[in-house]
Each structure stands twice: as C-alpha cells, then as structure tokens.
Amino acid sequence: MSTVTSDRPAVDLTARRRVGAAFLAAAGSWVAYIVLAFTVSAGYEEALVDASEATDTAVNRLPAETLAEITADHPWSNLSALLLVLVPVLLIVATRRASAVTGERWSVRLAWLAAGVLWFYFLLNAGLYAGADSLPPLTRDLDVLTVPLVSAGSVLAIAAFVLAALGLRRHGWRRVATAVAVFIVVADLVISAVLLVTSGFEEPIAPIALLPAELIVGIALLVGGRR
After folding, report:
1. How many domains does the chain have?
2. In sequence order, which residues have a C-beta less than 8 Å from that of residue 196 and are 6 or more positions away?
3. What is the enclosing helix (H) or strand (E) of 7?
4. Are 78 and 100 within 8 A, CB to CB?
5. What confidence category does residue 81 fall into, taking pLDDT thresholds of 50, 70 and 90?
6. Which residues, other chains included, contact 129 with Cβ-Cβ below 8 Å and sequence gap of 6+?
7. Distances from the Cα of 158 to the Cαs of 58, 91, 119, 193, in angstroms?
8. Average pLDDT over residues 106-133
9. pLDDT in tens, 47-71
10. Which residue range forms the structural domain that includes residue 153?
11. Is 215 a domain residue?
12. Residues 221, 174: contact at Cβ < 8 Å?
C-alpha cells in the first residue's frame, strides 16, 4: 500500500513533464517559423509587401498569379512553408498528452479540425508552385479564401489550446500559469477579431498568440516539482 502511494508523485511528475515538453515543442515550432520568416524568407515577405504597395492591394488579397510569381522567385520560402505544416501536428500532440491526464476530449478534436482547415489552406498554397499559368482551380481563389481559412483554423487552434489549458487547471496543474496563458490567447483573439472587422476582412485572425501561451504552460509544467 505504501509502495503504491509513494510511486504516485513520481508518475504524476513524469506525466506533467511529458505534457510540458509537448507544449514547449509546440511553442518552439512558432519560434523556428519566426526565425525563418526574418531570415531565409525575408525576401519573400518583402516581395509581398512591395507587390501590395504597387497594386494598392492588401497582402492577403493579392492575386494568386502574383503570389505564384513571388513564390517562384523565392524558393527558400519553402522552408517556412514546410515548417507551418508541422505546427498543427505539435498542437495535436500537446492536446493529446494533456487529454490523457485530464480526460478532456474536445481539445484534441478541435486541434484536429484546426489542422484539417490549415492543411487544406497549405495545400491550396502548394498549388502556387505549378506556376502562374497553370494554377489549380481553388488556388486561383486564394485572394478570397486566405482570410476565412486562416481565421477559421486559428480560432479552432486557439479553442483547442484553451480547452486543454483549462483542463489542466481543473486537474490542479499550474493554476496561475494556465489561467494567464488562457487570458493571453483569448485577449489576442478578441483584438484580432476587432482588427478583422475594422480592416474590412483583409487581416485574418492569426494563431501567433499561441507562442507565448504555449511557452508559459510548457515552462510552468516542466519547472519545479509542485503541481
């Protein structure tokens, strides 16, 4: 009896650190993406801005033909695009590990839904590599589809994180850290929604607030031995 009781804290600590490592990995994918965006993909980002200013069109409303030409001129931007495909996977892993502890299931389902939406968007972007003269049908409509698809995927990803974090909080793990993380992503979601409307639906809701939120939860779960 005493042996089982003494083993529980060690098992609990191992599980907590596994969940923390998963959230840190998810945050790390965002850090890697930002680094790539400001280094190997910097030329691509600058070309988007230049095209936007030259045509007086929002970046997210640029015609697919223009995007295809810019993509062909900046092949190294493929690295950041490939990394973005991995980002939803790490969120799924993090929510699954949290769910295994808390029993909360909807976070995993929403993470999969977010991944499905975002992967569909990335698939449409992959059509840009066919060239400006050979774009697949839906890829031609990226100027219309980008904002709703990115916004929908972002909202689903944020909702998945919020449910996972609240589940951990109810489980008694890092109540303050999880509450702060939830506040950050929800506040950013509200601000992003306002910007979406005030921009005339030209700026999508982005899930970048997941970076600090996942970082907070990951570090809090890894550091120290207390619940």
Report:
1. 1
2. 147, 151, 203, 204, 205
3. helix 2-37
4. no
5. confident
6. 68, 71, 72
7. 25, 10, 16, 13
8. 96
9. 999 999 999 999 999 999 999 999 9
10. 2-222
11. yes
12. yes
